[in-house]
Each structure stands twice: as C-alpha cells, then as structure tokens.
Amino acid sequence: MVISARDGVDDIVSALEAGADDYVTKPFDVVEVQARLRALLRRPAMATTDSDDANVSRAGDGVQHEVFVLDATSGPLVFHRAAAQLTRGDREIHLTITEYRLLSALVENAGRVLSRTALLEHVWERGFFGDERIVDVHIRRLRKKLELDPSEPRTLVTVRGLGYRLDVR
User: Fold this and answer.
1) Of the residues 12, 29, 46, which one is the last residue of a structural domain?
2) Using an 8 Å Cβ cutoff, are 2 and 11 in contact?
3) How many CA atoms lie within 13 A of 91 on its CB side?
4) Cα separation of 117 and 32, whole Å?
5) pLDDT tens sequence across 106-118
6) pTM for this one?
7) What is the pLDDT of residue 89?
8) Which residues have a Cβ under 8 Å from the Cβ of 125 and sit 6 or more positions away?
9) Distance between CA atoms of 61 and 72, rounded to whole angstroms?
C-alpha cells in the first residue's frame, strides 16, 4: 500500500503498475487506511483453495497442495499457501501480495520455465499495461527472500531469453 501526498493520475498508475496493491493520498482518515489494510491482508487467504485439504508436498508434483517444501538443503524453506507465509526454519519471511501471487504461480509450475508474459497474466489478473520488465523487479525482490545468496540463485533461476523457473531441492 502506498500512502502519498502526490495525487496525480500518473503517480497513482506508476505505483500500482510497480506492484502496489492500493494507493491512498494524504490527507487520509486513519480508519479508512486501517480498513484498506485489513482488506489487503484478507486477499491471499481468499485466493487459495480449501485449507482442509492441506498436505505437505514438494512443489511441482502436479497435485494441488497448500504447503510446499521449496528447499530442504540449507534449512527448510517452506511456502504455506493458505497462510500466505514463507518460512525458513522457524523464521517467517514476509511476502507482499504481489510476491505471494508470483511465488504461487512459480510453485504451481515448478520445474517449468514461465515467460514474463505468462507471469504477468498469472500475477496481474486485471491485465497489465506497462513494461513487462516489472516482473524482473519483483523476481529480484522475491529472490532476495528465497535465496541464501541472491547473486547465485539456485531456487529461482533465470533462463536467459525465456523467463524464470522455480527449481526445488
């Protein structure tokens, strides 16, 4: 969520296209912002399937699950889809809604290369009318959270000229 004194349409559109899920201009009513934040926090839970069917799986096994082990080699990196939560060991790693949607798309297609265009279609549901390189920005941010060494990615891999692939270990 972006809170800004800038109220021009270009500023709002730029923020939303860069990944913001909401934009509030100053001055604002605190009660309204709190309601908007609660609505944003509810979104990931609404985007998932029934959590009663939750089971643990390795990503990309072709079965719909709620909990995915992305990396077991250096402390378990686990994505809890229903809780919109990423954990490494017992430490929670915060995900933005855009990162959650991006990771969900990658997990659903683990082992397969997804182009920027495909990721835009998965993540930005209402369509996207900007530079598709915005995917690179969000991948970089997500990679910082997933990888032990983001400069040498082993989980979220770039496939030059094609897109991105989630490799689970």
Assistant:
1) 46
2) no
3) 7
4) 34
5) 998 889 999 998 9
6) 0.60
7) 80
8) none
9) 16
